[in-house]
Amino acid sequence: MAGDPLIDQGQQLCEQVGQERQQLAPQRWHCSPELRSRLVAYSLACRADGESHQRVAERLGIIQTTLSRWIRKARSEGAGLRQVAIVPVRRSRTSVPSAAPLRLVSPHGFVVEGMDPELLAYLLRVLG
Q: Are 126 and 42 in contact (CB under 8 A)?
């Protein structure tokens, strides 16, 4: 039986937070912009499921006030309507379908990657 995709994704993100912290062990940790955008997107998906920022922050191994500040900042940067386009994917004859995780890049450059199609579709529905 498969686990909850949000819980599994949270565990992976927590591990990545730990890896970044280890790399900067003697220094004060500053989350990379890429990881921060993934943490915010994950947190918004969890919040849509009814979880508090405190509970999500505990799962991710970060401080709740920091997570809430990142979310507020991301929301203010992403406010307003954005034009989007859906374009077909062109595949060469030699390309082989892969099970590679999907990657989403927001208009502000936030990158969300490593999600399966089902979780990515859910996140897009939640974020509008």
A: no
